[in-house]
Each structure stands twice: as C-alpha cells, then as structure tokens.
Design brief:
The protein is of the alpha/beta class and 309 residues long. It folds into 3 domains: 5-99 and 200-220, Periplasmic binding protein-like II (D-Maltodextrin-Binding Protein, domain 2, 3-Layer(aba) Sandwich), CATH 3.40.190; 106-186, Periplasmic binding protein-like II (D-Maltodextrin-Binding Protein, domain 2); 231-308, 2-Layer Sandwich (Double Stranded RNA Binding Domain), CATH 3.30.160.40. Helix content is 35%, strand content 24%. 46% of the residues are buried.
Length: 309
Amino acid sequence: MNVTSLRIATRKSQLALWQAEHVARGLREAHAALGVELVPMSTKGDLILDRSLAAIGGKGLFIKELETALQSGDAEIAVHSMKDVPAELPDGFVIGAVLPRADARDALVCPRAVRLEDLPPGARVGTSSLRRQAQLLAARPDLRIEPLRGNLNTRLRRLDEGELDAIVLACAGLVRLGWEARIAAHLSTRISLPAVGQGVIGVECRSDDPKTRALLAALEHAPTRIALTAERAFSQRLGGSCQSPVGAHATLTADGLRLEGLVAAPDGTRVLRDAIDGAPHDAAALGVRLAERLLAAGAAPLLERSHQA
C-alpha cells in the first residue's frame, strides 16, 4: 500500500488531543511501520466562547477547519467526537472508522448532591445543550439553566468557584481524562437520553483516499457503527442540528437493535419519546422510521421552537 505516515488534524483541547492520540496509538499498534503525527488546530467553535453554539452556527464549527486541512492535504485524517459531527457530511468526506463506544450517558457533576432530585430548589445548573436543558427542565422545572461553554477545565472551574451548583457533562470525556471521580451521578437514559453519537470517537478522511481508508479499517468497531448509523439516520430525517433538543441511543441486544429517540421543547414543557426494534442490518431504515413516528406525533413544531430559542 506504500503509506508510511499519517497526519491527524485535531482540536487543541485536552480531550481532543487525548482522543487523537488514542487513535494514533491504535494505528501504530495495527500498522507497525506507520508513522503518525498530530496536527493540532484551533477551530471557530473553540475561539468564540461568548455566544451560544446555536448563535454562531452549531457544533459543526468544531470540525470545519479540520475538514479544510483534509481537503488541502495538510492532514490525511481528522478525529472527532461523533456527537459534534453533523448528520450529513460535506461531499468528499467519510467517517472511515468508528472506535468502540464509551459510556454514552450524561453525568451530573456537583460537590454535594448525588442525584438530580437532591439538588436544592432553584439550583443553578450549567449546560449549553438544548437537549440537556429540555430534559433537565422536564424532570426539574424549578432548575435555573445557565449557559456553559469552553473546554472541560473551564467548565469545571466555574463549578469549583461557586458560580454554579452543578453542571452536566458527557461521562465519556470525564472518564477519558481520568476525572471519573468528579461524577456525582450517571444520569439514566430515562432522565437524559444522550446526544446522537455521544461516547463515540470517529475518524474522518477524504472519500477519494482508498489507502487511508484501508489503514483505518483496522480501527473499525462494527457494533458501534451499527448503533451510530441508526442514531444519525434518525437525526438526519428530523433535520435536527447538533444543537437541537434531539436525543437518540441505539443498543444491540440478543434480540437485535433497539433505538430510542426523543425530541423536546427547549423549556421541557413537552417531550416526545419513542423506541423501535429491528434487525441490525436495517439500522438506517429504523432510524428513519422512528424519526417519522415522532414527526407524526408533532416533533416539527418543537424543532422549530428550538431554532428560535
């Protein structure tokens, strides 16, 4: 195949660098003669922290500069948290591999409470995710949701300095950085259905680069791909962005594939939730079918409200 090295475009945050190095380590183990180099980059999503992601274009801003590096030949692959990747990739790009999924649940991080119901009335909870906001308010309408941007260190610092009573983060990121002890409670998916692709590391490359795609095949985890396919098909059919109050979680069981999906009003006053079961090879079709059921139940007006939130 005659490929001697790969360059990985990655964001500069501590978590992004951990994920990129995790992919690099896997590639080195799979291909002993392969050199792998990280190319850290700043993205628009990392640089603009004084406005919500929805206001500046959504989570896709975390990956556009990385895709530009792939297009220009400055890197061969880019590593992403799949929850940040829009349901539809630009032409010419493909997710060449997905790694085994980590814990997909959300985590409640706070110094005292050990359950969501233990938070005091009117507690200030930090999150900039409309999905988390909607589900938190559905469970606890008294909570005061405060915007929370920045890397994990910045978010934890705001909590530690007393600006907030609690914050909600992805379990996977905390565990990957060795901060699992900060988790007060793992939120059940019944309380907070995860984001599409949460806990999944994906590796993007150009679709016209067969040599790189062949190298990435060694990292592919088929069960995670099946679950991710169902979730992303669900999101794509809804037309939801990464910032919409949309949740989805697919699991493989002995009986097949189960997909749970949710669309909510940003203020938590209405939550539409459903589930579907089927064969793993029908993952994409199941995602579309579940989305259409929620649309028939009234999801479109809720998604429209999120665009105005």
